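Narrative progress, year one. The postdoctoral researcher (J.K.) led the effort to move from monomer predictions toward full complexes, under supervision of the PI. The following entry was the first complex the group processed end to end, covering 613 residues in total.
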Amino acid sequence: MAPLPPRLTGFLRSFSSVSKKEDLTEQFYDLKAKRLQRQKLFAKEGLTWQKIVHFCTEHQDKAEQQVVNQELKSLLLSAKQIVGTEHGQEAVESAAAFLFETFYNKDHVGAEETRAIKQMFGPFPSSAAESSCSCVARLVAPLGDSRVENFIKTQSSRHNPQQCSAFGRNIVFSYDCYTLEPLESMPFSGTHDENSRIDF
Amino acid sequence: MACARVPLDEQQVTERGAQGKERTLPALHPDRKEERCFVPYRPPAGGSPAEVEEFLELARFIVEELEWLLALPHDRFWCQVVFDESLQRCLDSYLRHAPRGLDLAALPASPAVADVQRALHRAVFLTFLRMATHKESKENFFTPAVFGEIIYDNFLFDIPKLLDLCVLFGKGNNQLLHKMIENIFTQQPAYFSDLNETIPTVLQVFDAILEKCGLLCEGAAATEPMKLNAHKQASAMTMSQQELVDIILYLCDSTTTVHAFLDIFPAACSSFQSLGFLSRLTSFYEAAVPELQKAVRKRNFDDESLQEDLWKRLSHCCRKMVETAHLLLHHTCLQPILDSEENSQTFADELLQHFTSFLPEKRFVVDYDEQFPIADDISLLQQALPLVDETRTSYLLQGVEGAWDSLGRQKPQ
């Protein structure tokens, strides 16, 4: 990290007794840990792999079910490639559920989807993202857009309209910031200060 | 959900525990906090794609987490704020590290970085705003005294944080910040004691700068004769270029921060006044500004744009110091007179005393008079209090004229 510019408040934090003394070495900075924590949080949310399997296979005849099962397997395989081979079945299934939720209404892997996957799992093979996107497209195609949309909305807490009641949504916020307001430009031959010094 | 129309600090909730058993606990309880792991904010170390990418990921994490936090109901928000140390570290890291308008190095110029930084800036402000609000709605509120204890005992706000908030967000959100800080000081007057404790440390910054420039003549060091072989003291002309840059950046940040705070929260002016801030500011100005300006003008800089930038920063510092002096005088002397408060005569005497004490600081008095003509304030004073001592005011105005003459500067018409 770049060194912090000299700041008044930095000095006050260090030399006055009005702030909590923080052990800065405790400030861990680990994106991997954060991603793992996000994966755990997602796993606790409403949408599970079991629900997806049930949703995709219900009301299907045997032949269709076989095709669907094949696609679900492929999706799990792609998820495994994305989440990493060292993770167990539970993590892989949760990753597959995340991919299903990410791609259910997408026909290709865009920048936003790439970012969402990377934020959840870190760097990943793009081929795995593309194959999972295709798998999800094939899985949802016979089910009808509104049914799928409805399923995702009812199962996933990510799609709950909680944000519209968020604190501060109506507050007008200004991004203006203080900038330099010099009084004068640099004089090339000014000598105000020197005149004052020779006043014996 | 907690019960309505009872302050949050008195509410109880019944929830299912980990084993599925129902239990009743205070609405504000550590067990109600969620495990979220807020990551600390760090600006990118450089502009390489990998560094930018890492910054974007980090900043998006924080934005998402803060948006989640802001969407929480009142009781859950406060459980998180009070009991999640990672959240406090994250907010504090933003206040410490977020780029300011006056920093030399800005964030890498990319639309993605700008977008996420803006989202983050807003989310951090709204989080602090919510934390400074003890009554969010008719149903969601705290007992004011308990609110004061919570924000103080948990260091949700402290004086350096309030100063950071002013300098980061104050330019465009002056009124909101004023309400926030006023509420914080009203609900918890202990912040005034903390402010009184902090002001001498602010003054140490001025002393530290004077010392670095070899201008601090205090105590034994000033009276003892210097040995002939003693090392010459460093000055603004002889110190390393980096030291000079650091001093000017430090002064720039300090003067802007103090000014922003007093501008947003004028009630703090009396604390600054009672601790002699104004006289220290004017004597610092008189001693340091000419030396630093001379150094910037006369030293050789490899990079002319750096020289120009330092000059602008120094000029900005002068403006902020003069404006700070004006804020202090306006809020502690002039405004009470204009408001026809009791003891107007005492305030008038104080104001004249301050102006008279400026007179030996010729450079300061001229720069002040240029920005805020002292004659105008005297005229206002005479209108409000016709019995003001005329001999005293004419002596003062002559002194101001004399300062202009002695510096060889022409008063703008």
